[in-house]
Structures are given as C-alpha cells and as structure tokens.
Amino acid sequence: MTTALDPIQVMKQEVARAAAARVSSGMVVGLGTGSTTAFVIQFLGDRLKSGDLKDIKGVPTSFQASVLAKKYGIPLVTLDEVETIDLAIDGADEVDPQKNLIKGGGAAHTREKIVDALAETFIVVVDSSKLVDRLGSTFPVPIEVLPMAIAPVSRAVVKLGGQPELRMGVRKDGPVITDQGNMVLDVKFSHIDNPAELERTLNNIPGVVENGIFVGVTDWVLIGEIKDGQPIVREM
Ligand SMILES: O=C(CO)[C@H](O)[C@H](O)COP(=O)(O)O
C-alpha cells in the first residue's frame, strides 16, 4: 500500500530544494526557522556531505535552527564573528504582493528579522497557501513582549484596534517562552492598511521587543505550487 504525500509537504520540500541550490561554496548563510527551512537545512547538509558544497557557515535564527544545523553538519557562527551574511533563507506565515511578510509562527521573528535584514540577499520560501492580497488576512501579527509588560502592551494594541491573545504552549502548560525568555502576543487586526506604519507603531510601544511584520526586507520569494499534479517552484 502506498501513502500519498501531503501536497503541502511536497511543496515545502520542492521550494526548500530550490532555495538550497542557490547557496554557493564559501557563503555565510542565514538559517531560518520553521518546517520549510528545516528542509533547507537538511538539503544544505546533503550538499555538504556529497562535496557539492564546501566551506559554508550558518547563522541560526533560533535554537531550533541551530539544533538542525548541528544535526546536518553545518558549521555555525555568531554575528560577532561575521560582518556580512551573503544569503538568508527563511519561511513566512503570510506574503503580500509587495513581498511584505508576517512571520513569527514559530515565535522566532526577533532573531529572524535581525538575520534576514542583515543579509545581502534574503530569499523567502513558502508554499502557495501563504500568499495573501493583504497582510493580516489569515494570520495575526506576533509580537514578542517582555513578560512584565504583557498587560500594558495588550491595552496599547487594543487602542490600535487589535485583539491580542497570549500565545500558549501546545505541549506545555502556560505561555510560550521565546529563545530570549519573553512572551508572544498574537494580535488580530481586522485590516492592515499600512504594514510599514503598523510595524513602526507596534515597536514603539514600551515593552515590545519586536513584531512579526517584515517590510522591505525580502529580495525573492520562492513559491511551491502544484500544477497539473506536479510540484513546481515559481519566483516572485
Ligand atoms: O516565522 C517563522 C518562525 O518564527 C516561520 O518561518 C514561519 O512560521 C513559517 O513556518 P513554516 O515554514 O513551518 O510554515
């Protein structure tokens, strides 16, 4: 008996393979967080193992990314050790037609924004379900907040028209704690007219560490799709 592969997983793998193929020997590579970039890290490890790729260094965007990079044999460096990142590859929860993003489904958006924004080239890898006409259509905006400021930040986002919800752990009692020891508010907005303005406004609230709106950071989006029953990768 054969088991049909989940089409979303197939699209993620294809797009991850296409992104991993864009990495050249000697590059410093930003390693994103999430299920799609987990495939990227695995494929980079495969290329290193086969000798097709040599001497790359990874800058992880999360504890999860560093664990996977070690598992697949990718040497890691910190931002203290390198001045530039040649290429960053990361996933996203929503992508609009201007290549603006909502990220942070894995609560890693703070480190992701630092690494992705530093990269000379930033490639986003998504399956086609992540494409939206307008940010905020399907996904709330994740905001990393210092634990002591959860109440005032929640009140401030309500004044901005948002509905905040403290992100809770799935296999853990209590809230999700980020790699930096903070908490995450997922904030639903009925519509986001100006993502750049909302990104700045949210980051100006005292106690907010970083929010998951990424404006003007993306160079390329690789989109995994199924066409005529076959997975294809489209570029935006
Ligand atoms: O922003 C992220 C983590 O903070 C991820 O990149 C985003 O949630 C997409 O994840 P996936 O590839 O699993 O769909």
Automatic annotation (TrEMBL):
GO cellular component annotations of the record: cytosol
Active-site residues annotated for this sequence: E112
Catalytic reaction list: aldehydo-D-ribose 5-phosphate = D-ribulose 5-phosphate
UniProt xrefs under Pfam families: Rib_5-P_isom_A (PF06026)
EC number per UniProt: 5.3.1.6
Keyword check for Isomerase: yes
The protein's role, per its UniProt record: Catalyzes the reversible conversion of ribose-5-phosphate to ribulose 5-phosphate.
UniProt subunit comment: Homodimer.
Name assigned to this protein: Ribose-5-phosphate isomerase A
